[in-house]
Design goal:
Elements (H helix, E strand, L loop, with lengths): L1 H37 L34 H12 L6 H8 L3
Amino acid sequence: MHNFHTYLQMIEQRIRRLEERAMMLENETREFKAALQNIKPVHIENINYKVQELIVHDLSGTLHVGLTALTDAAQLEKWTQQQESGEEIKLENLQSEERGV
């Protein structure tokens, strides 16, 4: 009988911990939903390309104007830093970096 009573107390403690955890998770979910409601959506009406600012020294291969959504963030940052530093960005270097060469 004593083991049964101990077992029931253990089960009761476990249930209370689970109820507390469930309540905590419900509160977090409410907070996340409230935070999600406060996030303003991004709306882009149009994108203007300033092609007149594009300088081409040697035209060969394929020219991609703009960036795709699938661009690697680290690679994009590296390209941006190269551009800001005035370093010449060559297409063949970018292609070999993408392949991991």
